[in-house]
Amino acid sequence: MNRRQNTKQKAREYPSNQHEIKTFEAIATAFLILDSLALKTLQYKGDTEDAEKFEKLTKDYVDRIENDPLRNLRFTLRVSRFVSDLKLSDLLDLISRPVRTTYYWDAIYLRVNACHEAKDEEDSRYFTDDPPSDEEYAKKELRAIVEEVQKLDRHVRDADDKRYAGEKILQLKAMLGKLDGALAIACEYLGDEHKPLSCKNKIYICFLVPVFCVVASIPACIASFNAEAIPGKATDSDFYQLTASTTIQLLGISTSIWSIINDLRPKRDLLIKCGTYAGISICFTIVAVPLYLTVPVSWSGLLTFIGSCVGFMSRKIISKLGSTI
C-alpha cells in the first residue's frame, strides 16, 4: 500500500477525528525535527555517551526517514512524508516515547554556549587579520531549536485545549514546562521575546489572589479597630477575623483545586470525588460565618475545622494524581 492509499485509509478509519490526527501529526513532526537538531548538537558539541544514548532512542524512526526513496527532498519534507504515513496508534506511540527533556535541555545550553564561544573568538580577533568566527551561524542553530520548541508548544496547547489524547498531552506539557528555564536563557541571548511554556491557569490565579486578599483585608481591618469581644455578635472582633480567614481559605481551595484539576484532567470518578470534597469544604467554610451568630461559637469553629480537613483531603488526592504524571 502506497503513501496516498495509507492517508486515504486513515481518513476512512477516523472520519470524525481529522483535526485531531492533523494535530498529532504536527506534534510528531515538531518532535522529529527537534530530535534531529538535538542529536546534531549532542554529536558535535556535547558528550559522546549522551549522543550515543539519544541516537539509540531515536534510531528506529530516523533510519526510516533517512531511507526515504526521495532522498533529495529537504529533511523537513521527508519528515512530513514519514509522519503522514503513520497510523493514529503509531502517532500516539511516537509522541509518548521516553522523555527527551534532558537531551533537549542540554542541546539548548550547548547551543547558547557555542554562541558565547563564537562571540568571544570574534572579539579576540577584532584587531587581527584572521577571519572572524561565524557567530551568526551559531545563532542560527540556536534559533532553529528555539523555534521548534515554540512550535511544539503551540501544537501541544492546541491539543490540550481540545482535550486530545489525555495523559499523553499532559506529559508533553510537563516536559515543555521543564524546558522553560533553558528556553528563557536562549531567547534572552537572541534578543527575542520569551513566551513561557505554561498553562493559562496562572492568569486566573494572578487575578484571584489580589481580589480575594483585598476582600479579606476589609473585615480584618475592621477587626483590628474593633475592640469588642462579645462572642456570637456581629460587632465582635472575632467575627470579622472569622470572615477574613474564611475568605482566605476559599482562595486556597479555589486556586489549588481548580487549577490542578484543569491541568491534570482527572477521570470522571476521581473528578466527582474531588468535586464532592471541595464542595463540602466550601459549604462548611462559608456556613461557619452565619452560624457564628446563631449557635454556640464552638460549633462554628468545629465546622471551620471540618471544612479545612475535607479541603486538605481533596488537595491530597489531586496532588497524588499530579505526582504520577
Q: Tell me the Rg in angstroms.
A: 28 Å
In the residues, how many domains can be counted?
A: 2
Helix count, per DSSP? Answer: 12
Please bin the fraction of helical residues.
over 70%
> Which sequence of SSEs, written as H and E, runs from N to C?
HHHHHHHHHHHH
Structural class: mainly alpha
Head-to-tail CA distance between termini? 38 Å
Arithmetic mean pLDDT: 74
Q: Roughly what fraction of the amino acids lie in strands?
A: under 5%
The unreliable regions are: 11-15
Largest sheet: none
Strand segment count: 0
Q: Globular, elongated, flat, extended or rod-shaped: what is the shape?
A: elongated
Keywords: Membrane, Transmembrane, Transmembrane helix
Could you name the key traits of this structure?
single chain, 325 residues, mainly alpha, 2 domains, 12 helices, 79% helix, elongated
